[in-house]
């Protein structure tokens, strides 16, 4: 656990260049509410790409048994309550299976087929026979609604976030996400690949999973189970 003795480094970066402070300060209210409503009491939860624990730690406080996995030690140092595991998706091979495996942050929209297959394989490896996978994604209509020049700013208390889209080819979207708080600003480049529901369904099937969401293109939340 982080006892708070060492203040966070506002300039810290994960190995892939991700600004740690964005994830440490980013509110999790709506995501947390949705996920918590899907879980039974005292569920075992695996949070893949957990970052600083902004979902994992609150779930522990709600009574769940959570394992937070991330490849970045700079991220995991901020996780205070969940069990921490530093590993890549490809290398992750925990002995236990989980009632729920989480994949938040539209990770399946990251460009490239092989990274997507690696993370979905990790989901399938760690899901209990009667468990559920909950995946957050950017459906095609959402990506199409954000052309080049799109700007969206949102304020959560003392935190303001801004999403700016620089280019949208119809398949690949590139832009920047910024977070402002305490008179400072952190920037993060973003790149997302537009995927159809059929593509996601096929990739889940390849990993040994079945999509159970009835109308996936109308929601940012996908549910899956073992085939």
From TrEMBL:
Keywords: Methyltransferase, Transferase. It holds the Pfam family Methyltransf_25. Residues 45-131 form the Methyltransferase domain. GO terms for molecular function: methyltransferase activity. It comes from the Bacteria. One of its GO terms (biological process) is methylation. InterPro entries: Methyltransf_25, SAM-dependent_MTases_sf. CDD domains: AdoMet_MTases. This is SAM-dependent methyltransferase. It comes from Mycobacterium angelicum.
